[in-house]
Amino acid sequence: MTITLAPPASPATAGRTGPVGRLGTCWRNTVVLTRRNLVHIQREPAQLSDVTIQPVLFTLLFVYVFGAGIVLPHGANYTDFAIAGLLLLNLTTSAMGTAVGLSTDLSTGAIERFRTLPMWRAAVLAGRSMADLLSSALCTLIVALTGLAIGWRTHASPASVAAGFGVALLFAYALSWACACLGLVSKGPESAQSVGLIILFPLAFVSNAMVPTQHMPDWLQTMANWNPVSAVTAACRDLFGNPNPSGSIQAWPMQHPVWAALAWSLAILAVSGPLAARLYRRRTTE
Amino acid sequence: MSAVPMIEADNLVKHYGPTRALAGVSLAAPAGSILGVLGPNGAGKTTAVRILTTLALPDSGRGRVAGHDVVRAAAAVRRLIGVTAQDATLDDLLTGRQNLRVVAELSGLRASEARTRTADLLERFDLTPAADRVVKGYSGGMRRRLDLAASLVTRPSVLFLDEPTTGLDPTSRSRMWDVIRELAADGTTILLTTQYLEEADRLADRIVVIDHGLVIAGGSAQELKAATGGARLEITLSAAHPVAVAALEPFVSGRIQVRAEGRQLAAPVRSRSGLANTVIRALDEAGVLVDDIEVRQPSLDDVFFALTGGDAPAPSLDDLPRSDLEEVRP
Questions:
Q1: What is the ipTM of this complex?
Q2: B203-232 residues touching A, CB cutoff 8 A
Q3: Which of B105, B154, B187 sits opposite A7 (nearest CB)?
Q4: Which terminus of chain A has a smaller tally of CB atoms within 10 A, N or C?
């Protein structure tokens, strides 16, 4: 091997200073790691099944199997009712990907290398949540297309429909930060996955996503009405112009679903963002 | 070569739970030199490297790289160093090229700089043909080379290599040695840990021997050899002779071992010029016929075993898989 390495030069451009330079560094680091995570997905496309195959499967199962047995108030169309719920069901359960992905990252040597680089440390988290936001967007697209294929229609302005998708994605993004915290405290990808299931499935199902909550026992109904997933689902139904039986429930989040959805999402972000950064620092300090 | 130390450790102490990994390690490497840190598994080599590369915090003591404190000025240190850890820190799902690109861009190189630097390094480490293959399929030697390439992306002026040749075949090892020598010749300050005495002997300007978290010796390979033991005299006689041992007695500095039914004699000696002549003359005068005589300089192995007492290295932190290590971290 012949190598003629140039003499050590000034170390790259890493040391750009000033607040603008720092922000630029943060952004560029995040983009680099987002791209890395997308390459991972490209290598192992099976990782994506929870945002590609699962949404199609769930949509068909719920609409055709459960939909047949569920009677909605005022004879509303179950397909129109179900799609917003399916969107939230899929986005919520796929948030587990963040916990598993981050936990996998921590168990490999790549993080060790990153820790010796002059980079923005939290880019590991930001890049992960960014990649997961993109897969959430893919999930949203697939649920919408499957819905359209089986007869789902919106009855609102395009801006309102877009706002509905926006509210759902904001919630998915916030939830991925919460799941990042889970990934950072779990021992490995497997435990992140099993704990994630235990938390996310009740969160997704004890809600108005798939059935109206009116027939649930009182205590369960209260939980469902205050569940963030219910607020976001109701917000989507309102913004899509789809039937929203929760609209007649007296709980505040059901009366103001859009505000409740935004408040929940921002609150989750405000808590779990800094917490994730803190947990990451603790996890990578020895 | 200037006398200002580029790498400095001052009485570093580090515990992992109840395990004391470092009990007060001090070392220094002047600019442009290669410092060899030699020790058995679990001696504390990796812990020292982890502290000096900002990956671990010392319980007490100070580390400095180019004058920057590794705890308080960690960011400045990271801008100067390249690190090749004992376990390759590569992303298995990325190609070789993508691995280097990620490191380059995270280090702040612009996209175009990153592209050319990556291509150069792949070429220099003979990885161009495998550049676009996923790293998962790389051989051990290729992984080591890619890992080293990754640590050179920013042209670091200080390089830490933690057992860079462990597990490599002899060809890959000697190629790695060439690379390390060339880097040092270009002015890079290198700290290299190794379990191989030969490696330290061949590469390092100075050697520090660590055992049980303490520096037990330091100096050039020559100084270490001279400090412990001295030379060894080995003589083969044509036939056993009753006065041979007595005739040899005045020249040796320890017990004379007699083997092969009195035909082979061996003993420690203080090396000096003309020693072999003097010994042969004395034996000749005593009527002893000599077939072979050798004054053997001590190898670094002899030094090492003399210093560490030669006991088998106990299983320790360095041997534990990383997941176990997590358990004992505070």
A1: 0.83
A2: none
A3: B187
A4: N
